Amino acid sequence: MDLELSDEQRLLADSLKAFVDSELMPFEAVTDRAGEVSPELGRQIVDKALALGFYAANLPESVGGGGLDNASLAIMERELGKVTHALHGYVWRPTELLLACEGDQIERYLTPCIRGEKTECFAVTEPGAGSDILSMSTRATQKGGDWIVNGSKHFISSHVLPDFAIVFAVTGEDETDRGPRKRITAFLVDRGQQGFDIQRGPRSVSQRAYPTYVLSFNDCRLGAGQVLGCEGQGLELADKWIKMGRVWVGANCCGRAERLLELSVDWAATRKQFGQSIGRFQGTSFKLADMVTELQAADLLVMHAARKADAGTMVPADAAMAKLYASEMLQRVADNAVQIFGGMGLMEEMPIERLWRDSRLDRIWEGTSEIQRHIISRHVLRQRDG
Amino acid sequence: MSFGQSIIFNEIQGVSHQMKILVPIKRVIDANIKVRVKSDQSGVELNNVKMAMNPFCEIAVEAALRLREAGEAEEVIVVCAGPANGKETLRTALAMGADRAIHIESEDSPEPLAVAKLLKAVVEREKPGLVILGKQAIDGDNNQTGQMLSALLNWSLGTFISRLSVEDGAFHVTREVDGGLENLKLSGPAVVTVDLRLNEPRYASLPNIMKAKKKPMEELTAAALDVDITPRLTVLKVEAPASRSAGVRVHDAAELVDKLKNEAKVI
After folding, report:
1. How many CA atoms lie within 13 A of B223 on its CB side?
2. Is A102 in the active site?
3. Which residues pair with residue A57 across a beta bridge?
4. Is the minimum CB–CB distance between B91 and chain A shorter than 8 Å?
5. Is the ipTM of this complex over 0.85?
């Protein structure tokens, strides 16, 4: 990695690398195979991350977070991204949406999340509303001073069974120049609340130990104090989170690609066939050249977006380009790694097959590659009124 | 114990909680990197190679921090002699929790005796009660600096330690020696060199990383310390170890004994 890091960023990367290597990596294969992380192991990671100040490093110091800027967070996501989400999730960065907490919401939701006492999940996606968020059908209607929520959410991923969900629901419709548009509001819903059910969802081929949940709302009654931010402002809130989320996926992809590259270089340099190391065959060496070049390009795109975010000049296309390129780079790097390792690349004894399986998810979540290309193309076409 | 030593002993006991600890550290090629010899055989390749703090020095820093946290010392000072990028390694020690740093800049990495002389000069300025060093650096593997420093200072010395505590104003150490473990009580001030099993160095925490930049880093030179660091050794040639040929599989114990007797001639 050659990203012109500051002293602090280099120290952060070194310390996180040591932490990931010793505290997370040893548990990766066994937890992935088991399909879950034990609560004891999860707690152990949370406690260590809290003690080191890595937990909630994304939130401002004024609320008890680590106060990292976006460039430093990108470095953090890159190092943590080397290991599975199931494990790195426990070094949790609570969603920035919680900064919208007001009044007693701060003590009930924001502060416990920063202290590692509660964990939230972010519930937007529905069976009928994936990339097309506005097609969501979960509704909240006002009754007396309360809100009654009905509907369901799925693919709600969280490293741990969440204590509460930030649920997005339709609360009305606005007339706009381009026709009617749904009003979407964010609600804080506690697990255990009557009318709210949370179940583990289907298992995925990618990130096997990182659960997804299905959330169901059946006349779930919420007080007015459970609205996060303002009524009708849910999408604006979500947008803040989604925007950087794409950059973080890009950073995670770079971390995993670096791991695949290192494994591949070691293998190519030591595995001998026909009397020489396979790295001496052009078929292998040119793959390595492409892998390292594309990783460098993705790293630069991710850091470019993060540094622009710090300068306040990042546009959605910057985050989209970082996410699109890094996730597709990771897929190519993972595929090349399998090819360089040959049969061993597919065996569960090596981490290659897991990284290859996991890489498939990164082209889908936080906006599919198609959505990213849409955002990027609109960004250039709009400048010509296209 | 002689009367003279007992006086030193009492002085240290009286000031132990205000004791400074000096930790000299070295910047070396990262332990995970495969070292390559330069094509002109003048040394090993350092360009574009990941560097890190010598692992034994990390253990030394950790030992000093633990003594400070236990209330046995007041300040941990880290010092590094060598090229300018040694400051980066000092920052790592500051991020682990050391209080301040001293960098003695020189064009090349000085030889062990020169380092020991520089450290003696720093000890005379800083007056630490304890100097903790790694037992050796993983680049030169010289295993000399700590011993030379103790001789120059005429201080107590405990090498290869795997246990360190301060009890009744003396340093109690366990040394890892060929025959097993040796327990020593050192009267202060003392020089100790640490072995692998003394502790597991901590990760730099985020708050300490952020604080590291604001911690003082003093810049010195050999000339300012009035120490001559002119090399006394000339490196004639550096070579990679000869590669070993593959072993032979024997079918049974009898064949093994036969080979040991008649081919290797070791039994």
Report:
1. 2
2. no
3. none
4. yes
5. yes
